[in-house]
Each structure stands twice: as C-alpha cells, then as structure tokens.
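F.,

This is the one I mentioned.
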C-alpha cells in the first residue's frame, strides 16, 4: 500500500520523541601556585588544562592561591595581570568563571587590587577575602563551596612581609561555622590556600595552626572535601570523613618524599579535575601530559 503524505505525517506525529540529551555532569578544575609569567612550565600546564576544559567542560576554574610570585601584584594595572594570567590562560576553553582564594605570596603585595580586579575582569572572581558560592548540579540541587583566606590563621606570618596584620581569623571561622550549619547541601566543599592535613604528614607539610582552628569545624560541618595549594605537589588523604586534597602544581613543583598516611603523593605539574556524577564526586589529578595520575570518587554528606 502506498503511503500518502497525510499518512506519513500522522505516523510521525504518533512516533515517540527522541530522549533529550542529558546535560553534562557539573564540575570544576582547580589549579594552585601558578603565577610565574609563564615560566616553570606554567604555560604548558595552561595548554593542557585548556585541552581538558574543551573536552570536560568544567563550570569553573578555581585558583587555590599564590596567584602571583613572588610578591603579589602592586595594583590593578600591574603587568603581571597580563604576563601571568591573561596571556597564559588565554584559550577559549579557559574563558569561564575563576573563583579565587589568596595565598601567602599574594599577601606580600596588594590584596585589595586582586579583589578590585574582579570588577574589571569577566572571569576573575574574588569578591572578598572569604566568601561562599553555589554550583548548580543540573538536578535542582547545588553544591555549596566556601572559599577561605587561610594566611591570617598562620601565626608565623605575623611581623613578616606576608602582611596579615589587621585580619580577624576568629570572625572568619565563625562565619564558616555558621555557614556550614545553615547549609543543607549534600556537597559541602571548602577551599583554602594552606593545607590542613597532607598525605606526607609531619612538620612542614601538615599545618598545625589550621589543624587546631579549622579541622574541628570541617568535621562538625560535614565537609566532604578540603582543597588547597601551597605545597607544590599533588596529594590526597582522608581523615574524619573529609578528603584533604593538595594541588599546588600550576608552575614550580617541589621534590616529594614518601607518604606517611594512606593516600597519594606525586611531584608533577598539573591540575585537579572534579566532576559531580550519580555515584559521587570524582576527583582526578591530571598531569602536564593530560594523563590522570590518581582518581577517587567521594561520597557526599
């Protein structure tokens, strides 16, 4: 029987519609300790990160601090904005929001200028020294991320060129405690510059000032992951229900000794890639060649 045009249209109207493509899982990249005018493999890491971003489509690229070496920036017109940031992370795939935290080297310069640059840049996001953000996950929920300013907690900086005088870490800690208690998010993530616990462990790697001040708040607040830079290595360990993840390998890296705690350690240039998926939060260290050195899926709270 020959199908008429009317019958074809009627059959098409009754055919099931193709399923809509599921949105890609939400995620973010994190890079720390990077601002060296392209040297120490900073430019090569940026190129690898751009390739990965084009493929994985992270919502954000988070900076874990020490954004400009050795002494921060002098102002919003400092040439380092171009030499260490705009001209290095120039690829289209990296033109997306960059939530930022401050590192100790940033405190050697003009911190107010790094905050003010947020009004000039379409991607640089540092609205205050510490602040919250919510990352929509595409299912009607959002992950809660809390960006800290950890240098004022470190007592050895008092009276040095890392100018933390006048900051109030107690007020910041109270804000974090209250914010975590008020959040009903399944995923609570805290980002700072300095480590709390590391896989390397011991003096010079763990940060006792943050263990005393911050670790109890993370535990009580149901934080699934604390992310940081500062140590120019890749490290993963877990303690008291929280994953402690170090990724300060955006440019110069440090030699590394053996792990003293269960987890992972590596001395390799690269960045962290994180993706929320049905089974949990997948985190992976990606090196300068694009290879994943370590991956783990974290459960939410």
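My design for it:
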């Amino acid at each position: 029987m020959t199908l008429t045009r009317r019958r074809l249209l009627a059959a098409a109207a009754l055919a099931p519609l193709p399923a809509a493509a599921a949105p890609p899982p939400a995620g973010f990249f994190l890079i720390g300790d990077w601002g060296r005018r392209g040297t120490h493999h900073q430019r090569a890491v940026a190129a690898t990160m751009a390739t990965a971003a084009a493929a994985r489509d992270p919502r954000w690229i988070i900076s874990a601090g020490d954004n400009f070496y050795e002494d921060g920036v002098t102002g919003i017109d400092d040439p380092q904005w171009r030499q260490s940031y705009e001209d290095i992370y120039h690829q289209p795939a990296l033109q997306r929001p960059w939530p930022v935290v401050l590192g100790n080297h940033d405190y050697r310069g003009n911190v107010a200028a790094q905050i003010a640059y947020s009004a000039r840049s379409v991607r640089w996001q540092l609205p205050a020294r510490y602040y919250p953000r919510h990352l929509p996950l595409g299912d009607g929920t959002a992950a809660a991320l809390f960006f800290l300013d950890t240098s004022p907690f470190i007592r050895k900086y008092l009276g040095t060129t890392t100018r933390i005088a006048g900051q109030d870490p107690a007020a910041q800690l109270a804000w974090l405690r209250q914010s975590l208690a008020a959040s009903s998010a399944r995923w609570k993530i805290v980002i700072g510059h300095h480590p709390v616990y590391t896989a390397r462990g011991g003096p010079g790697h763990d940060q006792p000032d943050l263990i005393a001040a911050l670790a109890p708040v993370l535990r009580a607040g149901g934080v699934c992951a604390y992310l940081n830079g500062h140590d120019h290595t890749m490290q993963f360990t877990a303690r008291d229900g929280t994953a402690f993840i170090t990724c300060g390998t955006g440019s110069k890296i440090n030699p590394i000794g053996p792990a003293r705690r269960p987890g992972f350690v590596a001395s390799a240039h690269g960045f962290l890639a994180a993706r929320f998926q049905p089974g949990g939060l997948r985190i992976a260290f990606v090196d300068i060649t694009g290879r994943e050195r370590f991956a783990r899926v974290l459960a939410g709270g």
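The CA atoms of residues 46 and 90 lie 9 Å apart.

Talk soon.
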